[in-house]
Amino acid sequence: MNLPDTFASQANLAIIPPVGVVGQREAAVERKARYPFKFPRDTRPLGGKFTVKENSRHLLRFFYFERRLMQALGAWTLTIPEFEVKLETGRHIFYHADAARFLRERLTEQEMRPAAIDSFRDAEIDRFIDELLSANSAAELLVGVHQVVGHALAIAYRHHIDVTDPVADVPTIRCLRRILSDHEPMLAWAEASISAYIEGGVAEAGLVAWRWHLDRVLRSIGGVTGADVRGLSPTPLRIDTKPFERGTIPLRDVRFDTFKNTGDYDTADGADRFPKDSYESLRLRFIRTQRDEIDAIEAFGTFIWDIRFKDFDAEYDLARITWDEARHTEIGHRAMLIAGYDPFELRNRLIGSTCRGPMDPAFAMAEINLFGEVGVLKTINQLIDAAADRNDEVLRHVADYIRSDERTHVRKGGRIIGVMTDLESKALELRTRELFTECLVSLGAVTKDMDVFTVSREDIERLVGE
Length: 466
Description:
By secondary structure, the protein is mainly alpha-helical. It is built from 19 helices and two strands.
């Protein structure tokens, strides 16, 4: 637009002097003098470092790092042996997913379309994440995720808050502060956990060297913002020798006694603790099943990795379910204690993750959603009623919350499966049953006594279902 000459000349001035009208300023002073309330002054200055475009560039990289960290932690869920670290990782997967969602929402407010946000890729960040994933142990994974990139993101978020416009860009400030409310306890937990690894015998020198290596890789791509002074990338990278591949075998720490040749706890224990189908037997089985949803952390986390970049909403829903399963594991662990057991005296069922780990995600997801979670909902109402009749407040309380979660999971699961596969439901169910029959037979959990054999829906619910 061409401005009139008078406007064009004023636009070149550093300051445009105000033009008053006789009596107006004096009247304003007099009105303010009569106003009785002395509210706190808002001292925030107008003005900041970023234009909307520059702001969006930073937020898009932040979004991409958070999304990639969600995916990366999912890729490692099977391979983490330590119970506390696997459980906490299930929680952190969702925290990174939620951070990505907050940033994605803010980017849409700054005139970016969701499709453009979701399709954003950065080859340098991808290479950094692949190198981080090439950790040789869970301890090294924590170093990379938390001490390197998590720490760098927290610094970048605080700096962005400090230098962006505190008035015009306050939605971004609030977004980043909400993310930091999750990041800060994550980082504190990671520091304490890495110390626990070192105190337990993991060589500190190796962890420090890995941190130095990843710091240099991150510096070579300009840091999390991409705007930092770039250094040389270290050579060689681990991924140059061996590209990262996610694990397929579920790992447990030495405190667990595990089994996978049966889905039945009494068979695995070698004795019936209570009469079969008694309330006491059903109660203990339910509690043990919740503790053993450690395998659901592994399943849903792995699905995030396996379908990465297909659909952000599906990734987000999977991350939320992963967090829920981490809570269910905690519920089961604490309920065992309340019931008088040392949780590690009760054997851990590995059959679910053993079957699902190497499997195509659509069929593994179908097993959980169509069989496991639906199977829980078939029986949980009666279990809650029975607990109420016996004044068993512990079981009634935990089962009430779990029922609510499982209902939500069944609803979300249908959409997630739609992202994973184009198969119709009957074909998907049949192929899932066939694959799990093959797996259960190979593990000795069922005996194949005929040429054509496929376990029933009820068998899968009982043997593998969550």
